[in-house]
Amino acid sequence: MRRRVKKWVWILLMIICLIVLGFTIFNTFNWDKDNKKTEIQVREIEEITEITEIPASDKDEILSDYYKYINLPLISVDFSKLMEKNKDTVGFIKVNNTNINYPIVQTKDNNYYLNHSYDKSYNNAGWVFLDYRNDINNFQDNTIVYGHGRYDKTMFGTLKNTLNDEWFKNNDNHIVYLSTPYKNTLWEVFSIYKVPTETYYLTSSFGSLKSKQEFINTLLKRSKYDFGIKVSVDDKILTLSTCFDNSNKVVLHAKLVKGQTRQ
Fold it and tell me: Is residue 13 part of a domain?
């Protein structure tokens, strides 16, 4: 009797192991398939994207730290071919010393591009997208951009780099470029951190200056590093958000410091 029970226990354990193994193989296969599809998308976008560096000029709108940014160039992206590929395209973002160099899309919710690629095909890698509440042509208090923290370092997979000492020590990395069909802009990083998943930092607009100041104070206090940057209630904030792991997020905040309206 005992031998029969032991036999069934071993059979049950083997079945469980085979199910787990099959599930792992299935997920690995899908993950690899999504990666390959994403690589193709990225290569196609690189081929059709024209990025021009715009030298500083008297047309630039300097919003803070005038002398610090007066000579820094902006980037301007030709959106015509990108719009042909995806009409949801609203901008293009670049973060120094990361792989973040992508067109941004936006739709009516924050769910669609969690599992759809730039060509709108189903893909768990998703794409980099703007919060549906934001207006890319009229920056609100907080403009929010999301992307998956992919292990293959696509999308926002390298946003984790900003938590490294070497990334922080290079001041050239503290700039985020955001080009839109309406305006080319430059943003200065003032806070980076890891935080348990929440919605607080995803607030896009504030009912009072007091609540916005409290928001700014919280972001500065959370930062892993002291960037020595002053942020006021008059500043426009850009937030980049991605997963660090299953229960934590990596978040970067920058303020708008320079812009130029496109002709």
Answer: no
